[in-house]
Amino acid sequence: IHITQSPSSLSASVGDRVTITCRTTSNVKVYLNWYQQKPGRAPDLLIYGASNLQRGVPSRFSANGSTTHFTLTIRDLQPGDSATYYCQHCFNIPPWTFGQGTKIEIK
Amino acid sequence: EERLLESGGRLVQPGGSLRLTCEASGFSFSRHWMNWVRQAPGKGPEWVANIRQDGGDKYYVDSVRGRFFISRDNANNSLFLELNSLRVDDTAVYYCARDPSDAVSAGSADLWGQGTLVTVSS
To answer: By the CB < 8 Å criterion, does A99 face chain B?
Structure first.
């Protein structure tokens, strides 16, 4: 199962709302996770099961979707949200794949 | 504090071998599937392998199957990755990552180590 993530990068201002999309080549039901990665650090889990907010993640982050189309939305963008975001499917047995990433720059 | 600490990464020649170790602390290691995920310089993460709680089931990405071997020692809260027949394109930071292993969030990775760098070069 391959994932196409878009856009590859975006630039937005503090307070903006941004949306990232992942499309999978096969139905993964809701087995789709989202991560945030800052330079020099390991990824952090944001969302699991397509729409469930990981403990400790601000409610400004939300996600939804199923089957082959998924979105991550960040509202009220903050300077600390500058990072690269990845989706990852975990449907059925591995191997599981990651999207190509979306780099968010804060203007 | 829950923690994962990888070690063992170094410079190795093509065709060489290496063993990575991940030491877990602060949680019940034996209750979780565990993963290895790698990230080549400037690239996104790539899931490499995972192993069931008792070590009975193991899965690999196609590019490493038959060359890399995942194992674990629950008595010592340790995860291992044996890397053989290394290639230049295996160069990456290798992370161990915990699968929550519950009904809702299984398949995600909720705790990561800091990573260990494997460089394959002549």
So the answer is: yes
Distance CA A50, CA A53 (A): 9
- Using one digit for the tens of pLDDT, what is the confidence trace for B3-51? 999 999 999 999 999 999 999 999 999 999 999 999 999 999 999 999 9
The pair of structure tokens assigned to B111 is: 């705790």
Convert the pLDDT of each residue in B66-88 to its tens digit. 999 999 999 999 999 999 999 99
Which of A9, A88, A93 would you mutate first to test chain B, the one with the most B CBs within 10 A?
A88
Structure tokens at A10: 């975006």
Q: Which two tokens stand for residue B97?
A: 């990552």
Secondary structure (DSSP) of B23-53: EEESS-GGGS-EEEEEE-TTS-EEEEEEE-T
